[in-house]
Amino acid sequence: MLKRYLLAPGPTPVPAEVLLSMAMPMIHHRSPDFLPILEAAKKGLQWLFQTKNDVLIICSTGTGGMVGSVNNFFNPGDKVVVVNGGKFGERWTKICQAYGLTVEEIVVDWGYSIKPSAVEAALKKDPSIKGVFVQATETSTGVYHDIEGLAKVVKNYPETLFIVDAISALVAQDIKTDEWGIDVMIGGSQKGLMLPPGLAFVSVSEKAWKRNETSKMPRFYFNFKKERENLAKNQTNFTSAVTLIIGLNEAINMLRKEGLENIFKRHATLAHATREAVKAIGCGIYSKESPSNSVTAIEAPQGIDGQQIYKNLREKYGITGAGGQDKAKGKIFRLAHLGYADTFDVITGIAAIEMVLKDLGYPVKLGTGVAVAQEILMK
């Protein structure tokens, strides 16, 4: 028997309490029974996003939330800045171009974070820029971008929206939506929120809603204005993902019991333990600055294929992490510590890495990384 462990940056494991809550009999999404369920979800998301803004609940993957964040607030030809430091930065560019926006990319070397001064220089050079798009965590590289610093820059430009893909960062990182001045922020169900894939969450500021009034882009399913109007009545515009929203409430209840400060501390500790453990084994960390609390991108030892490590973790030891993408393929493998993760997820993952590396001929002393992780996690 091979027991399976899910340590990927999404989907992440779903707690038994959430699974059981989603097993209740189906109810109709327009019935009175559903109204308090959506009301609770609405308030819970505002707590998690640290915002008084409406947080829309969209039945889609996180990418659907990204698409809606483009076609609800811009017009074809609008100039925007995209921070491109990995595969998901590239996705912002592709979405913006698909809707006819004029994109200026700020390309960041993979493994590094954006300097707010680079965005400030772009905005000073062309104040007509209508939006700045960035990831909070660039999942492909394990880098967390300086969202607070970027928000301070964009806030000085009243005609520029600051749009953040926090799909992988939400829950793991302390992102203060209102305090920092984030105009649009996207989350997804299958990451820190410990749910199956299928829901996107989008926080929208009043500044962004004003821009929505002048946006003429075609939209039907991802129509945020209609979603907002329905949310005021504790409804969604189209058929609600009833089961997922019931599970969302249970997941948020679990997070509320832990408390925001403890949630962020837990993720920071798990991430720190993972990084220090793999360094003790002799592997490098791919993110050269500002590593994420969501996922660690680990450099494969010289002469060993990172994809082979990822494959052996999954096939021989039952650990599903993630491989490298694009230019990092074969160079890295990734382990997440996100959502329903604790001390022994990290220890299990590190122990499995040591065993795989030993299998592949790398001179690792078993228990080296595990011991480092244990010392950190016991504190």
Overview in brief:
With 379 residues, the protein is of the alpha/beta class. Helix 7 links the parallel strand 8 and strand 9.
What does this structure look like?
- The protein is α/β, with parallel strands linked by helices and 379 residues long.
- It has 2 domains: 5-10 and 260-378, Alpha-Beta Complex (Aspartate Aminotransferase, domain 1), CATH 3.90.1150; 16-257, Type I PLP-dependent aspartate aminotransferase-like (Major domain) (Aspartate Aminotransferase, domain 2).
- It has helices at 16-21, 35-49, 62-71, 87-98, 116-125, 147-154, 177-180, 206-212, 224-231, 242-258, 260-281, 306-317, 343-359, 368-378; strands at residues 5-6, 54-59, 79-84, 102-107, 131-135, 137-138, 143-144, 161-165, 184-188, 199-204, 284-285, 295-299, 319-320, 322-323, 332-336.
- Strand 6 (137-138) and strand 7 (143-144) form a beta hairpin.
- The longest helix has 22 residues, at 260-281.
- The mean pLDDT is 97.
Considering the protein shown, what is the CATH homologous superfamily of the largest domain?
Type I PLP-dependent aspartate aminotransferase-like (Major domain)
Query: Average pLDDT value?
Result: 97
Rg over CA atoms, rounded to whole Å, is 21 Å
Query: Which CATH class of the largest domain?
Result: Alpha Beta
Q: Structural class given helices, strands, pairing?
A: alpha/beta
Sheet with most strands: strand arrangement: 2-10-9-8-5-3-4
Shape verdict: globular
